[in-house]
Amino acid sequence: MTQWTHKSVLLKETADLLVTEPGGIYLDGTLGLGGHSEYLLRHKLSAEGRILGIDWDCEAAELASAKLAGSASQIIIEHGSYTQAPEILERHGIAGVSGALFDLGLSSYQLENPAKGFSFMHDGPLDMRYNTGTGKTAAELLNTADYDELVRILEEYGEERFAARIADKIVDRRAETPFASTAELRNLVRNAVPRHGRIHPATKTFQALRIAVNAELENVVSALAMLDGILLSGGRAAFITFHSTEDRIVKYGLRGLAEKHGWKLLTKKAVKPSRAEILENPRSRSAKLRVIEKLDYRQSAAKPYADEF
Question: For residue 158, which of 201, 112, 219 has the smallest C-alpha distance?
Fold first, then answer.
């Protein structure tokens, strides 16, 4: 049986900025294999502290549950999207949390598992869904979207300068044989786009499709919009981003909140991994951490805005 592993990024930096109440309840909106939650439980939370962990990937939630079994009395794990956090918190009778974490990156487990279809490095079904029980697969999207939609997805979500050329090739290829595997898409892009430097030509195309399949950017906007409803006064929210598109949404979303009364941006510049962390875990190199605090009403000149987005 394959033993999947994943190194969570910016562990200490995130925990130091997120936790202000060791005995509080915290939301790990992107539990993954439980790296950040494990660190919080070991190094930051008291015996009274609790975590509600949510993950869209059912298998990841099961792996995290096994990993954190020794702390079962302090963590509740739910299968679902972090956009469902308000309903999940209410179901558990939790009025608000002292902190919420959203690590928006893929885990190594997802990238290295060919069955997930996230990576061009391994041949497998062209799926890319975090939650395999709902929504279109990447293959279904690729085989049905019209040319203009394909160009939009590649440009907006992948910032791919050769979007039109790749979309042309996709439309021609699928007219003969629909896409089914990651290798088929990887080979098409590799033949359509010149390679520059060390980055594989298919990198941006795979990123764009993954974002589209899982509505990732829309979900980030939803997370920003629900902060006021899920955080207690004095609570903090931490976002870890891995590409410029999602980071812009988080950066300007948090900045917009901070320009109003009731919020304080704790990271005017994003916190990045140290050189030592990047050397140990190269996948951390693009990570950026941004944190905001919902001020206690007693410290705020006005009630925080509920309709920020």
Answer: 201
Which own/partner contact pairs does 249-256 have at CB distance under 8 Å and 24+ positions apart?
Answer: 249/217, 249/220, 249/221, 249/224, 250/104, 250/220, 250/224, 250/290, 251/290, 253/220, 253/221, 253/224, 253/308, 253/309, 254/224, 254/290, 254/292, 256/308
What is the tens place of the pLDDT at every residue in 11-51?
999 999 999 999 999 999 999 999 999 999 999 999 999 99
10 Å Cβ neighbour count for 302? 9
Q: How confident is the model at residue 6 (pLDDT cuts 50, 70, 90)?
A: confident
User: 31, 6 in Cβ contact below 8 A?
Assistant: no
User: Chain-centre distance of CA 104, in angstroms?
Assistant: 2
CA dist 221 and 250 (Å) reads 8
Cα separation, 224 vs 208, whole angstroms: 21
Query: For residue 103, how many C-alpha atoms fall within 13 Å in the half-sphere facing its CB?
Result: 29
Amino acid at 270: A
Q: How far apart, in whole angstroms, are the C-alpha atoms of residue 32 and residue 209?
A: 20
Contact 214, 55 (CB under 8 A): no
Residue 60 carries which DSSP code? H
Find where tokens 């079994």 sit.
Answer: 69
